[in-house]
Design brief:
By secondary structure, the protein is an alpha+beta fold. The chain has one domain (10-125). Helix content is 46%, strand content 13%. The chain contains 5 helices and 4 strands. The strands form 2 sheets. Strands 1-4 form a two-stranded antiparallel sheet. Strands 2-3 form a two-stranded parallel sheet. The longest helix is centred in the N-terminal third of the chain and has 19 residues, at 20-38. The two termini are 26 Å apart.
């Protein structure tokens, strides 16, 4: 999570076994819950899942039953907030790519992990990024 000039915080979790859609939805719910807890009222969310973009933009309630209660609660809590959500390929977001492939400890950090600060600076400067698959 970041604003126009700095990283506001990070989170990483294991979604366990299941569908990728469920992991993406849980990540979006956690992000929205943190937006509420932190009392932010203008946020830009980038995701590599176009379905999450459509789901949030439409405020759809069509989610798996086990997520329905949390999803409905965050939707009602963010009704008056200014939230932009856009699609970005994972490879285009160095921080998300780093978090997904390198961070092993689960948690929510209300600060920037030092290792990602240079990635944010590189993103901001528009430096090219080549992701090499292992």
């Amino acid at each position: 999570m970041r604003d126009a000039s700095s990283v506001l915080g990070c989170f990483h979790f294991s979604a366990g076994r299941g569908w990728a859609f469920e992991a993406e939805l849980l990540a979006l719910i956690i992000a929205l819950e943190q937006i509420i807890v932190q009392n932010w009222d203008f946020v830009w969310i980038e995701t590599d899942c176009t379905y999450m973009v459509d789901l949030l933009r439409s405020r759809s309630h069509t989610v798996p039953w086990r997520f329905f209660s949390r999803w409905r609660k965050v939707l009602s809590s963010i009704a008056d907030l200014h939230i932009i959500i856009t699609h970005i390929y994972r490879e285009g977001n160095r921080v998300a790519d780093f978090m997904a492939s390198s961070v092993t400890e689960e948690g929510i950090w209300p600060f920037a992990i030092p290792e990602i600060l240079h990635l944010v600076r590189d993103d901001r400067r528009g430096l090219p990024y080549i992701r090499i698959a292992p």
